[in-house]
Amino acid sequence: MVRSSTSTFQSMEELHDEIKLKLGSKTLEPFGHGGGGCISSGQGYTTDHGKVYLKVNSKAKARRMFDGEYASLKAIAETHTVKTPTPMLVLDNPSGGALLVMEHLDMTGLSKHDAELGRQLARMHLHNESVGKQTKKAEASVHKDEDAVEYVSKYGFDTTTCCGFLPQDNTWCDDWPTFMARKLSTQITRLQEEKNEKEAPELWSKLQLKFPSFFENVDIKPALLHGDLWGGNVAEYADGPVIFDPSSFYGHAEYDHGIATMFGGFSHSFFKSYHELIPKCEGYATRQKIYQLFNYLNHWNHFGGGYRGSSVSIMRELVAS
Ligand SMILES: Nc1ncnc2c1ncn2[C@@H]1O[C@H](COP(=O)(O)OP(=O)(O)OP(=O)(O)O)[C@@H](O)[C@H]1O
Q: Which UniProt keywords apply (predicted)?
């Protein structure tokens, strides 16, 4: 992986020359149709070392978004549990915004590898815990491994990551309910300030009081999360399942199921194989509402009032529970 500086370029040609230099490739030729998702556009290119995918966004804060995606892809890849495109470069774009260069994968919709993705996601969620167990064993041993991966004992991430294009406050926190309440609070404050919303803040002030009760009797260990695991961010390629476009942080493993169950795309086999490795804990269904609430609020902040009804009704339900 090659990380860039924050230099800017005079033209697209210069930008392409910079990418070629950083990738050590003489060629950089577009292929196929350009594409992209709701937030950014993208294009595949051939290089001397294989195919790469350039994800481009012209927003002023695109650099922060792509730095977060780069760090997330890297963290997931380092668990060796589930395939993600290898991130290569983040560069400022001369015409505004930024771009992310990553490995190109020929992806198709998730179908025959759905159960395998369930297993692999569970292994990714368990990875930090297993690092913790190995660390304890190593502490008791006389042979020290200087290169051993370190256990993460808090909730958060070293880099700001964006769910959509809005930044998530990943400042490290010792306690999951506090971290999760802060995530919700940030969304509510934005609605209050930017959309003059009144009812959601009132409901949140009531919900906050009972918030810790939703997490009683659950042993929550920090797990590396994808952070935006909707059906549009999972796929399969020739060798198995793929997850992409993450906005990672260390949090409660159940969090990744929140958005996964909002828009479909995940089968019974996916959840069955996941729960064979991480069984459901008491209170799972209620906590799913909390994790979905974050995503409804985040969609409301991104895309407008179409998500207001779902957000407010979940809050009312949780307040009354
Ligand atoms: N590494 C890659 N290789 C090949 N195609 C890719 C790659 N990354 C993304 N794509 C294609 O681009 C599409 C959109 O990608 P992505 O989800 O990263 O965009 P986005 O605008 O950030 O997302 P979203 O729609 O989730 O908000 C994917 O569905 C896929 O078809």
A: Kinase, Transferase
Q: Is 149 in the pocket of ligand 1 (CB under 6 A)?
A: no
In the chain (321 residues long), the average pLDDT of successive 10-residue segments reads 46 86 95 81 95 94 97 98 98 91 96 96 97 83 72 97 96 98 98 97 97 94 98 96 98 98 94 98 96 98 94 97 91
Alpha-carbon distance 197 to 295, whole Å?
Answer: 17
Mode of pairing for the β-strands spanning 234-237 and 223-225: unpaired
Ligand 1 center from residue 37 Cα (angstroms)? 5
The answer, yes or no, to whether any atom of ligand 1 lies below 6 A from the CB of 102, is yes
Domain 12-103 bears CATH identifier 3.30.200.20: yes
Asked whether 243 and 76 are in contact (CB, 8 A), the reply is: yes
Residues with catalytic function: 228
Tell me the one-letter amino acid at 303: F
Protein residue with least CA distance to atom 3, ligand 1: 104
Q: Is the CB of 245 under 6 A from ligand 1?
A: yes
Mention every residue, 6+ apart, whose C-beta is less than 8 A from residue 230.
259, 260, 262, 263, 265
Tell me how far the alpha carbon of residue 57 lies from the centroid of ligand 1, in angstroms: 12
The half-sphere exposure of 158 on its side-chain side, counting CA atoms within 13 A, is 8
CA of 289 to the centre of ligand 1 (A): 27
Take atom 2 of ligand 1 and give the residue whose Cα is closest: 104
